[in-house]
Amino acid sequence: MLVEKLQKKEHELTRALYEECFPEDSGRFVDYYYSYKATDNEIYVIRDGKKIVSMVHLNPYRMQVGSHVETLHYIVAVGTAKAYRGRGFMDKLMSHVLDVMYDRGESFTFLMPVSEGLYEKYDFVTVYRQSYYKVEHPVIWQRGLEEAGYSFRKAIEPDCADLAKKASALLSRRYDIYAIRNAYYYETLLEEQKAQRGGIMMIEHDDKLIGMYLYDREEGFEIREPLIEKKYERTVFGALQRCHQTNMMVRVLCRENLSVPMKNLFLNEIV
Q: Which domains are present in the chain?
C-alpha cells in the first residue's frame, strides 16, 4: 500500500474516482474543477495495479497569516472507491500528506468535512461555522433595498480586480488570517459559481462598491460569503434567513510558524 504523488499530466486520471466518490457534484462543477483546480494542485493516490483507488487533493492558497504571507493547502476530494473502503487507505493518505506539509514548514492546513468525527483523530479542530442564507424571493428582497438606495450587479470578469481590491481592504481590517484575494482569485471563483448556476453579486450604494456575495441556484437561491462594509451589514443582510452551516476544521502543523491565534480567521468554502 504505497502512497504516490501524481504528475500534473496524470491528474485527469482521478476524475472517474472523483465522480464515484462525489456524485452530488454536477458534471458542470467537475468540468470546472478539473479545468481550474486540478491543473495546479497536488494529488496523492494509492493504486491497485494501475487503477487509482484512493486519493487526497491538496489545493494551494496564498494566505495572509499575521504579518507574513505563505502558501498553505486546503485538503479536498478525500475519497476511496467503494470496493476498497475499510482497508485503511484514507488513514495512510492523510498521515502522509500531513507529514509532507509539516516537513515543508506550513503553519496549518484546513478542510470542510462531511463529518467532523472523521478528522478529529488527526487533530483537526473546528474553528468556525460558515453560514448560508436562503432567499425565497431574491427579486423582492433586492427591490426593497433598491428603494433605499442600494443597487445590485452581477460581476463579470473585468470586475474581478475591483472585487479583489474591495475584499482585501475589508479582510485586512477584520482578520489576521485569510486567503489573499487578487483578480485571478475572483476570476476562478466566478467560474466556480457559474458551474453551480450562480455568480458573484456586487453591491453598490451611492455609486460606490460596498461589498459582494456569492450565490448559487442549485437548490433555490442561496447566498454564501457575504462580505460588506460593516455599517451596511444589518440593512442588507439582516432580513435573510440562515438556512444551514458548514464547518471549517483546521490542523496546526508548525505551531512555531503560526504567529496569530486561529480565532481571527476568515475562510470561505474554497476548492
A: 4-127+248-266 (3.40.630.30), 130-245 (3.40.630.30)
